[in-house]
Amino acid sequence: MPLKFFLKLFFRLAGLILLVCVLNALLLTGVNSVRLQAWQEQLPAPLMRWLTAVPEPQAKYHWLPTLFDFQALEHGSLTLSPVLKERLLYGHVLTLDSPIGPRVLAADPMGVVLEMRFNDLYQGVSEATGLIALAHLNAALPADREAIMDNLAVALGVGITRVDHAAQVPPPEVLGRVIERNIAYYQADSDKRAKVLLRLSDGELVQVTAAAPFNPWAWPVLLLLVLVVVAVLALGLWLFLRRVDHNLRAVESVAVRIARGEMDARVEATDPAMVPRLALAFNSMASHIQRLVGVQREMIHAVSHELRTPVARIRFGVQMIEDCEDSVALQKQLDGIDGDIQELDELIDEILTYARLEQGGPVFSLQERSVTDIVRQVVDEQRLIHSGVAIEAVIPEQAERWAQSDVEPRYLHRAIQNLVGNAARYADSRVRVQCQLDEHTCRVDVEDDGPGIPEQDWEKVFTAFARLDDSRTRTSGGYGLGLSIVRRILYWHGGQAFVNRSIELGGARFSLVWPRKKPDDDEV
User: Which long-range contacts (CB under 8 A, 24 or more apart) does 321-325 make?
Assistant: First the structure.
């Protein structure tokens, strides 16, 4: 995987995670601010409604003003917004922040506003509720306490139970405080709800369990956060897949166009594309297919042209056999037909070799072989075939040190043989094959002293079935495939073949260059 693509994907994923975290933090803060305000008003509501229903609560619960700054205010004396005043008139309980602690307001049926202040809202409401329960239970007969506890629990929104089991007894420090003050506020580790232990006048212990404290991680909040995470991740995934799908559809569209015959159609592999390597690979494949189709058309045209001449000669020879009157003339016609068949066989071999190399190449099994030995073998073979031309191999002594190269011996032999054979056909008297080998590169130059090749035709000579109009004519033999085969062999070796002019001999110089060692898999 390319590092650039990995980093791009990584930072996008990190950005998405950061966005999820920021959204959840903002959502949690916003939702909990609303929930906290609602909880702060719901928690003291049972207590305040109880007090507004009691005539003269300041007198009945005379200890409330001392402990919780409990007071009655006139509605008109309050400095509240019209909305808050209207809420009071509708019976809502208000909890307002103040520098010394939360203020809790509630209006009685007569329009009098009762106010209580707490240092800590949860503890203060729990203790005030416990003190009211303590006052009523102390005033009741023991036989009536059960019914009163039930009534108080419903009205004040708490749980009230007797402590009549050892498991319900709180820790010793709580018992110590309840003995001193007849009331003790505490929170058990196993239960988040606050508890107020009451000691009645006859010594009986009663436990008041307060309402649940504010929980910022309530399950509706968690569910909302999970839904936000899922929604954001789903949106991010959808955008990512939408982009990938767009690029894949672009590739699909180009594939359909190529199937309709638009061989020059290509995928635009722009940098922001999520599948640039696929686009590049597809374009490379399309170019290869286009080239193969072009080569196929050229081959069909050229083969039909090349086959026409020997076939016509064979047909003419067969007709001439019917008119032969002696064995000498008959043998001459048979020899001619045999030569034409040999020419067809060579042409078919050249075409098959070129097609095999052009359509993806043979299964190259690169082996470590001596390049200088292959060059010497080719030179020795060509000297026997072209005895009228001086063919020499120039192999410097230092080249032997780097002679071992990763090659396909049979095809490299074929490439050098084609070049040396061509040079010998067009040379006046001399052909030179020179090796230049070093640690990284192999180079073989084949030069002749013939007429050479015009510079404007240096690329044309490597085109299949191409022939030049001047020195390299049909009379010299060949089918125009030899140099094309040479170039394809070098291509599959990871090298290239090119032509220029020989400075020393004056004719053409063909050069083969390829890496001495194939790259390791780790270097690809």
Answer: none
461 near 422, Cβ under 8 Å? Answer: no
Among left, alpha and beta (phi > 0; psi -120 to 50; other), residue 198 is beta
Q: Is residue 518 part of a domain?
A: yes
Q: Which residue has the tokens 């509706």?
A: 220
pTM over the 0.85 mark = no
Query: pLDDT, tens digit, for every residue of 115-154?
Result: 999 999 999 999 999 999 999 999 988 888 899 999 999 9
Clarify whether residues 405 and 421 are in a common domain. yes
Do residues 389 and 458 share a domain?
yes
Q: In terms of domains, do 369 and 487 share one? A: yes
**CA distances (Å), origin 460, targets 31, 63, 507:** 77, 113, 17
With tokens 């196929």, the residue in question is: 296
Domain carrying residue 470: 363-523
For residues 280 and 354, state if they share a domain: yes
- Name the amino acid, one letter, at 63: W
- Return the CATH number at 300: 1.10.287.130
Residue 205, pLDDT score: 92
Q: Is the pLDDT of residue 279 over 50?
A: yes
> Which structure tokens are listed for 210?
């307060």
Query: pLDDT (tens digit, 9 = 90+) per residue, 170-194?
Result: 888 888 988 888 999 998 765 678 9
Spatial separation of the C-alpha atoms in residues 349 and 346, rounded to whole Å: 5
Q: How far is it, in rounded angstroms, from Cα 205 to Cα 182?
A: 9
Is-contact 131 147, C-beta < 8 A? no
Can you read off the two tokens belonging to residue 423? Answer: 């040079």
- Examine the fold and report which residue of 344, 360, 376 is the final residue of a domain before the chain moves on: 360
Share of the chain above pLDDT 90, in %: 31
What CATH number is given to the structural domain containing 394? 3.30.565.10
Number of compact structural domains in the chain? 2
Sheet holding 194-199, edge to edge: 159-162, 205-209, 194-199, 183-187
**Alpha-helix residue ranges (DSSP H) falling in 324-435:** 327-358, 371-385, 409-426
Contact between 242 and 231 under an 8 Å Cβ cutoff? The reply is no
The two tokens of residue 385 are: 């075939």
